[in-house]
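Open question from group meeting: does this chain pack into something compact, or does most of it stay loose? Before anyone orders reagents, we agreed to write out a predicted structure and look at it together. Recording both the input and the output here so the notebook holds the full record.
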Amino acid sequence: MTKKLYHGAAYYPELWNEETIEEDIKLMVEAGINVVRMGEFAWSIMEKEEGVIDLSFFVNMIEKLHDHGIETVMCTPTPTPPIWLSHHHPERLHVDENGQVMSHGSRQHICTNNTYFRKRAAIITEEIAKAVGHLPGVIGWQLDNEFKCHVSECMCETCKSLWHSWLEEKYGTIDALNEAWGTHVWSQYYHSFEQIPQPISTPFLHNSALKTMYQLFSYEKIAEFSDEQAAIVRQHSQAPITHNSTTFFHVDNERLYKHLDFASFDTYAERSNFASYLFNCDLWRNFKSGKDYWVMETSPSHSASLESYAAPHANGYLKAEAVASYALGGEAFCYWLWRQQRTGCEQPHGSVISAWGKPTVGFENVKEVDAARKELEPVITTTRPAQAEVAITYSDRARAFLKTEPHRDLDYRSLIIPFYERILSAGYHRDLIPEGAKLEGYKLLFTPIVHYLSHDYLQQATKFVEEGGVWIVGPLTGGRTENHTIHTDAALGKLEQLAGVETLYTYPMEGTDSYGEFMGVKASLSLWSSVFQPTAGKAVGTIKGGNSDGAAFMTEHKVGKGKIVMLGSLPSGESGDLLLKKCVDHYAKEADIQLKTDVSRGTIVAPRIRKGEIIWVIVNMDGNGGTVSIPDGGKDRFTGEELTKGQYEVGPFQYKVIVFPMNKDEELGNNQLVDSVQQ
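Structure tokens returned:
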């Protein structure tokens, strides 16, 4: 099949009459929509009564769309089980941490681990796959919709039984669990797995091991449900399978995508938070390495529900989002939703077409996206994103640890996205990578806010350093064991020996009048911090004032051909930004990072490659316009203008594509990517 870029929308034809559907298809063609997603909330249409399944409407709908050049991503409808599945069956419903049983309605009200739910979910999924899996219009599958978006861990009796089995499989014996968890604290010792509670409400806080392990158990069970659905679909369809997730939901995305074919995400970031949008692009590109990701949902104008609404996009921003995504490795850019819903809890949500059939405030912006898609398609489909040299580890497991131990309401996303933004704004091409990702091709690795470093991760990172990489570790990294307990051999366990440090103290730095100094830059220190004394290597960042005056908050230690840098505390405020920028630039230079662009804040460069050429896709994201420095002679892909070395302006939400000849060293370093483009 010829490579193409997709421009799509979520569509719910089951909610509209035939005349409206015909009108919608006509408007889709006008707006340049070439793919729709459907079916994820339609279980009650497909199976109005238990065992009476009729999929003819969706078969006809897929064929009708295909006749107009619009392809379909078909969904399994499991997020919204019908009334016959939940009525009079409270044992099938989700139970929250307060013991409250969900009622029927909204979505995700049933426990996905319930045996009967799984049985009926398997039946409806297989019937859908048999009915539409062979249709040429079906180019992909989405399982369910936004796993664990509105609910987190379930506390029903089914989950309780599965929890006990999971623990027994993990620990083997109850004695091993008691030892690992340290259950003699507050007389929490257990005599059998069946005695171990779920982390429902208690007078104070649960044991950290119990709380974190239950989250990891829940992660695994929702991924198993996804695996089960995918296996059923694959019996009847060869189209690739995905799930639309985000970093908000209570899932381990790395585990979730392990057995899926491509990754996709939903995002409703406002323009003021464009870094969060780019964060998703840089992360989802790496959940299925070498595969293009999809933006499965974003609003054409604004997000909203009955209770809230966000600011509408400025004209031009939607185009900037789409171009950035395509350039960073996206294959599709899709909206939620096509036609505004006239009923339900999301009636005010932005859409392409209003409930009364007229273009909305976002319609012209959608047409702008389509024009950009068509202009970019020859470039994007013949190139691949360049290999980044800078990587930042992302961990949903770490998110679980921080949910258990949030200190002052700290949240993983609110910590790691600003950390990422500092590297983004400095102009470095970067990858966000899951914990299990390979490190080949990288020169500089950041591991912030990962409480537990697994044996496998430590091995990989050590090898990376020995072969010449620079590894910056922290803050809030390495201080907990696999079971969310504190190390007893050293504050940071085996990491200390590798990094050539002894951790003298760990404590919160806020309010201690402490500040850190690195290469002449001073900044206040924050978060739960580690104070170091080098046992090898040297101190490079010193604490001034407070409780640990004269000790180190940053150290470096040569290991093999590379080095390990420990960052024990997070510099804060504007001066903290300057200190971290100094740190990033200094070690990027030491690591010989080449893929750095001199670009103003709010504008990005997405480098792509093909045989003999490097292509820069430049996009202004903040609407203020910006500048970019061209290091060598290049050519504007669209105007044909020959560009010389120098600084060039980029208008508000404007994008440019600049083509540079690739030198032999660059081509050698990207051989594998060049080969993949040729294929």
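Observations to bring back to the group:
The mean pLDDT is 96.
The longest helix spans residues 208-234.
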